Amino acid sequence: MTPLLKGSIVAAVQIALVASLGAKLLYDRATRPRVWARAAPYDPSLPIRGRYVSLQLIVEARGVTTPATGAKWQAPQAVTLRLENNRLIAEAASQLVDFDANDLHLRFIDRRSEKLAVLDQPVAFFIAEHIPDPSVRAADEELWVEVTIPRKGPPRPIQLGVKKGDGPIVPLEIL
Predict the structure, then answer these.
(1) Of 14, 63, 79, 175, which sits with the fewest C-beta atoms within 10 Å of its C-beta?
(2) Which of 39, 172, 44, 45 is nearest to 118 (CA)?
């Protein structure tokens, strides 16, 4: 077998792997539920950064223990996601014996004097270099993200949108 043939086989296998992952993500997007979720911009303070917006998804918590006011530490609370009336709901998962970092967990944050339930794994929405940061919004605007809810793992972002007051969510045209 010549080196050219070996290299071509390795390249074909790598292309097949990447294409299968892309096909799975497209299949999930077409078949899995999707919903608009309110987002809280989050600065991860990572030393290596790409051009992306990191977002914590705000969810409606059900059956989850709310931490005491002023508590400095919160125990991780495993949750499962579901949709109800076009809202993203995080329900307490059955009590797990061991902590699994791959599970979805919920925590509470204070933002603008409001206690919000957020998923602990932020989602990254990649943006082009030439556009301004879409997470910087006016005080009367809320940032929303449309996400696909996979069977397992964190939601996958599709697009960003803005909501003003009680108006509809208007998708941002990010090119």
Answers:
(1) 175
(2) 39
pLDDT by residue (tens digit) across 54-99? Answer: 888 989 888 887 776 666 777 778 888 888 888 888 888 766 555 5
Q: Any idea which residue has 């993200």 for tokens?
A: 145
Total Cβ atoms within 10 A of residue 61? 20
In our burial notation (b when 16+ CB lie closer than 10 A, e otherwise), range 131-161 reads: eeebbeeeeeebbbbbbbbbeeebbbbebbb
Q: List all residues 6 or more positions away from 107 whose beta carbon is below 8 Å from its beta carbon.
A: 74, 76, 77, 117, 118, 120
Q: What global pTM score does this model have?
A: 0.77
DSSP string, 72-126: S----EEEEEEEETTEEEEEEPPPPSS--TTSEEEEEEEETTEEEEEESS-EEEE
| CA distance linking residue 14 with residue 2, whole number of Å | 19
Written as six digits, the tokens of 140 are 């009367």
Burial class (CB in 10 A: 0-12, 13-18, 19+), 60: middle
The dihedrals phi and psi of 5, each to the nearest 5 degrees, come to: -65, -40
